[in-house]
Amino acid sequence: MSAALAYYPGCSQTASAREYDLSTRACCQTLGVELNDVPDWTCCGSTPAHATDHALAAALAARNLAQAMDTGASNLATPCPSCLLALRTAQSRCENEGFKGRVEVLLGRPATLSIRTRSILQVLMEDLGLEALAEKAVRPLKGLRVASYYGCLMTRPVGLMAFEDPDNPTAMDRLFLALGAEAAPFALKTECCGAALGVPRKEAVLELSGRILAAAEESGANVLAVACPLCQMNLDLRREQIEGYTGQRSTLPVLYFTQLLGLALGLPEEALGLGLHNVGTRPVLDILRRTWASEDVG
Amino acid sequence: MPVMELSASQDRAFFEAVCAKSGQDLLRCYQCGNCTAGCPMQPYYDLAAHQVMRLVQTGQRKAALTCSSLWLCAGCGQCSARCPNQLDVALILETLRHMARRAGYNPQPRVAQFSRAFLKSVHSHGRVFELGLLLRYKLASGRLLDDADLAPRLLKVGKLHLTPTSTPGQAEVAAIFRRYEQGAGS
Amino acid sequence: MRIGVFVCHCGTNIAGTVDCAAVAAAAQQFPEVVLAVDTPYACSEPGQRAIIEAIEQKGLNGVVVASCTPRMHEATFRRTVERAGLNRYMFEMANIREHVSWVGRDKKLNTFKATDLVRIAVEKLRYNRPLTAKSFAVNKRVLVIGAGVAGIQAALDCADGGLETIVVERTSTVGGKMAKLDKTFPTVDCSVCVLGPKMVDLAQHRKIKLYAMSEIADLSGYVGNFEVSIRRKATYVDWNKCTGCGLCADKCPSRKAPDHFNELVGRTTAISIPFPQAIPKKASIDASSCLHFLKDRCGVCAKVCPVEAIDFEQQDEVVKESVGAVVVATGFDLLDIRRFGQYGGGRFPDVVTSLQYERMLSASGPTGGHLKCPSDGREPKSVVFISCVGSRDRSMDRAICSGFCCMYTAKQAILTKSHVPDCETHVFYMDIRAPGKGYDEFIRRAQEEYRTNYVRGRVSSVYPKNGRLAVRGADTLLGTQTEVMADLVVLAVGAGAAEGSRDLAEKLRISYDAYGFFMESHPKLKPVETNTAGVFLAGACQGPKDIPASVAMGSAAAGKVMALFSKERLESDPQVAQVNAVRCVGCLKCLRTCPFGAIQEVQARDGSTKAQVIESVCQGCGVCTVTCTDRAIELQHFTDNQLLAEVNYLCRSWMEKSPA
Ligand SMILES: Cc1cc2nc3c(=O)[nH]c(=O)nc-3n(C[C@H](O)[C@H](O)[C@H](O)COP(=O)(O)OP(=O)(O)OC[C@H]3O[C@@H](n4cnc5c(N)ncnc54)[C@H](O)[C@@H]3O)c2cc1C
Ligand code: SF4
Ligand code: SF4
Ligand code: SF4
Questions:
Q1: Residue C571's beta-bridge partner residues?
Q2: DSSP string covering A117-182, please?
């Protein structure tokens, strides 16, 4: 894999999900995947724009696609499933010429959106593949029992995302297996965590995220892997709120899959932002250190 | 519930409009309830997703547009993935939300306030400025203490920026909003 | 020629929007027409009598009736003219109902069009020639494919009627799905107790020859004279010697073979007899599990078999039979449970298909009739049934209702209670379809007497929770979401056509629908016939149906066969293709095009190659006539001259006059 990728970080990755961005960049660098930031990128519009007006939402997303295409890139990747959905929705709606016309009026420039858009997870799985990833791993994730939580948008809508079995996605599970970890039989892989409703309807998010956390605990996992900044925020940052709401304590760390991958690739914890969590990530590191010590790696 | 008079109360034009705007043929819905069955937000809804579909089918414009569920939908797409008749239920709900906004119905002000605050933030900075967004929302909703516990935690790990990062793209984004507000592209 | 034209009013069906008298008056002027009248009902007894009288009094030798579609009454009127002494092909029909009065409102235009259609019929009739049918002998043996309850019934009825009957069954035992069921609705009587005696009758009937573990390799020929090749699959046991003692299975060390009879619930031995009442009761070896075939060792069965029936060298064998009619009764198969990922199908051991559940309930099943969860063998205290799984679901391209699952689900709920009285039962349903005799009462019993909790709504997902299964659904009547904990989840998986149905249909040259179910010839009036003469349908292969309906259809098919065989000779339809040998250049394009295999290659006396139509096979579809670039092949009764006469008139008339 040599061709450079246009990289669209998305707003969360500059703030509340900084560690997702850090670890994504670090992993890609180690793996030889060149990321070129979309010049001057702006917000994709996310759910609020979509909930307001489809043309407005598409225009906000389209601007970024156009920016990326201006650099001559033919491939774009973003870590955030919600951004990816916004970008893809714009692409798919603009196949309708009438709609595209409206978007162009708002955008003030032609909406050329033919760039291929994928998630970082998808790019790693498809362009590098499990074998290559496993080969580059210098430290096994042995001792970890990972519950992989995909969230609702990674596989849905099925027609638009076209990634994995929507009822039982296994990409992350397969990745962690290849990296030497165990995959916990986690039941609620694609259940919704409550998404952005955390602010206006907190109790809903606490209930739903609480359910996911409980299922992850039940699966016997010692770490919960995610690929979405909103999921991570709800499950990690809101942990005390969840505990207050459900009355169940939980110290299960919630890591981005790129952080776990980075550990396997031998990257230092600071490079992966492991100190930026609300729920401590130390237990994960402790387990791995023991493994590595006994296997004389790391 | 009062007696529903079947011919007079049915607003066919409303039904047709929802079908046309969403591109979905709502006559396909046979009320199996699968959309409701998987909906994570259902416990918070005043009307279940399938009931909203039924209201549209029977042309009950006001009841459909004033229901809170439209605003509570998380957009997770579970309903659409499950519908045996391939209806994009989430899209239908979203279409109704657009129509409700235009009609001036807003039964869940906090959700709308959050949406507005979010877009305002994008408008002003090109990207979301999380702290600004939260403050704006709090002021609009009067819920000053909501999530106050989160801020110190975010600040501690350097995740909550106190000032917005500015991006040159902001001007172009602002222009998009300006044209939108002037009614262009509709 | 002396032609008579009869313009029918069909009450107001035609006369309402066509001026029939005007059509008749116009027809009076057409060439060679000596009589043209309108008549209120041409098909009625007085209507037919008028036609006969006109033929006799006016010396007509050709008749046109302008009325409804030929599909409705062509045969009627052909008989009418025949009774007056004319050849039945000296008759033409103009369809002025479906093609005119029912589709247009403007009386003037309708009258104009009706007049044109009558004229076309007259023009064609002027070129008609009397045709006579040929006759051929019938081979009064019948082939039944598939020995589920429908096939068994058809075979027994045929054999009891004195016909020699060949039965071909794909698996190693007859009985089909019914043999796997525990009890049957709505009487809750033991399934194999009622089916068993019929299976034995089948095996012992003097007139029946059974080929189990066999499939149709090829079928050629035509009604009355089919040639069939049957592939007998190797069982590695000489069935002429095997006594069904079962010693081999007792001693077989390979005990992990997939148990297909038990729907993969539990395992069996590599050599086995599917179940105690199997017919034929013979052992067969599953080569994919047998150590002899896998590792070239073992051979224990060969050592213990008291009659030396084991034959590892056995090969598939093809045998030929000749029959005059075929009854297809290949039944259905359930959809693959793995398609239902949202319910954990194929992933969670305690999520099973309805047919697996029958085996779990059955006393002859793998648990001896004790209800146990496949995961850990515990007795379930809560069973959830989900209806319409893969039925009435357009997102899976399965819009059809599977017909019998509502009923068997109620039955299974009842049986669950009789196995484990303190077990909760919940049924998620959308509608309940129970139109049969005593059926709705049965559903009520399940709810009232057996306390089954019926929840109106679909299920979104099944997921593991606290060591059990959580079933998340909706109760649409209450407008709520529901969740219920289950130890066992039974999916009423939709019925599809039996595996391999499409292939079989191609071999038999019959049609099938989008789901692979075989097509009947007419949905109301010919439910047992197919579009290929001499091939009949019975049971669920035509669409999902329950046992009473399958049995009735089996008997109906047998009745059809006996009616067909009641004649010594059959007449072939003379409306077939005919090769003009002078024009034929022997390119044989027609032979390759004919969908019925009705064209053969022959050597002319001068040694050149020619095509020849096998009249009894030709269905008169006409595909060959348009393929032949040398215009050497023509369809009788639809010759080029006849068609051109129609077209010539139409084109000329349209150039000269067109409606205002
Ligand atoms: C779980 C369940 C419970 C049911 N319970 C009841 C009940 O209680 N009462 C009731 O009335 N009905 C019940 N039914 C319906 C019943 O099973 C059917 O009505 C009946 O089996 C139909 O009989 P059939 O002979 O048409 O088809 P099948 O039973 O499917 O038999 C077809 C036979 O043809 C054979 N075959 C298939 N393809 C070929 C081929 N190409 N060549 C040769 N042979 C072939 C098969 O091996 C099989 O032996 C139930 C169905 C299910 C799924
Ligand atoms: S998209 Fe909305 S309505 Fe549909 S399941 Fe998700 S939250 Fe419920
Ligand atoms: S899932 Fe589809 S068919 Fe069923 S109630 Fe919802 S919208 Fe209607
Ligand atoms: S019979 Fe009943 S359960 Fe089966 S598909 Fe039809 S409605 Fe659904």
A1: C135
A2: EEEHHHHIIIIIHHHHHHHH--S--TT-EEEE--TTTTT-SHHHH--S-SSS--HHHHHHHHTT-E
- Domains in chain C, ordered, with CATH? 3-131 (3.40.50), 141-233+316-332+497-565 (3.50.50.60), 247-304 (no CATH), 337-493 (3.50.50.60), 577-636 (3.30.70.20)
Chains in touch with A (3+ beta-carbon pairs under 8 Å) read B, C
A1 token code pair: 């894999």
* Contact call for residues A267 and A27 (beta carbons, < 8 A): yes
- Which residue matches tokens 């005119």? C100
CB distance C310 to C302 below 8 Å: yes
Q: Give B90 Cα–ligand 2 centroid separation in angstroms.
A: 6
What token pair was written down for C434? Answer: 């129970």
Q: How far, in Å, is the centroid of ligand 3 from the Cα of C371?
A: 34
Say which residues have a Cβ less than 8 Å from residue B93's Cβ, sequence separation at least 6. B49, B52, B69, B70, B73
One-letter amino acid at A150 equals Y
> Ligand 1, from C546, C553, C555: best to mutate by most atoms within 8 Å of Cβ?
C546
CB-CB under 8 Å, B128 with A53: no
Question: DSSP labels for B34-96?
Answer: HHHHH-TTGGG-SS-HHHHHHHHHTT-HHHHHT-THHHH-----HHHHH-TT---HHHHHHHH
| Residue A153 pLDDT class (50, 70, 90 cuts) | confident
All residues at 6 or more sequence positions from C361 whose CB lies less than 8 Å from its CB, including other chains: C182, C183, C369, C371, C412, C415, C416, C419
CB burial string A45-79: b at 16+ within 10 A, e below? bbbbbbbbbbbbbbbbbbbbbbbbbeeebebbbbb
Domain A130-297 has CATH 3.30.1380.20: no
Q: Which residue of chain C is at minimal alpha-carbon distance from A190? A: C342
Q: So what's the architecture of A5-120 in CATH?
A: Up-down Bundle (1.20)
Cα–Cα distance measured from residue C496 to residue C391, given in angstroms and rounded to the nearest whole number: 10
**Is residue C3 a contact partner of residue C90, using CB atoms and an 8 Å limit?**
no
For C63, the 3-state DSSP assignment is: strand
Pocket test for ligand 2, best of B36, B56, B79, B94 (most atoms within 8 A of CB): B79
Please give the distance, rounded to the nearest whole angstrom, from the Cα atom of residue B77 to the centre of ligand 2. 6
Q: How far is the CA of C608 from the centre of ligand 2 (A)?
A: 74
Q: Is the Cβ pair C342, A167 closer than 8 Å?
A: yes
Q: Residues C399, C404, C410, C416: what is their CA dihedral angle, to the nearest 10 degrees?
A: -110
What is the tens place of the pLDDT at every residue in B57-74? 999 999 999 999 999 998
The CA dihedral of A82, A84, A86, A89, to the nearest 10 degrees, is -130
State whether residue C569 sits within 8 Å of chain A by CB.
Answer: no
Q: Which among A156, A158, A164, A167 is the top mutation candidate for probing chain C, defined by the most C β-carbons within 10 Å of its own β-carbon?
A: A167
Domain ranges of chain A: 5-120, 130-297
Binary contact (B33, C394; C-beta < 8 A): no
Number of Cβ within 10 Å of residue A28's Cβ equals: 20
CA neighbours closer than 13 Å in the CB half-sphere of residue C615: 15
Beta bridge partners of C472: C461, C483
ipTM of model: 0.89
Give the model confidence (pLDDT) of C493-552 as tens digits: 999 999 999 999 999 999 999 999 999 998 988 999 998 899 999 999 999 999 999 999
The model's pTM:
0.87
Q: Are A193 and A234 in contact (CB under 8 A)?
A: yes
pLDDT in tens, B20-63: 999 999 999 999 999 999 999 999 999 999 999 999 999 999 99
Tokens for C151, please give them: 């096939």
* Closest C-alpha to ligand 2, atom 6: B76
Q: Which two tokens stand for residue B152?
A: 């110190």
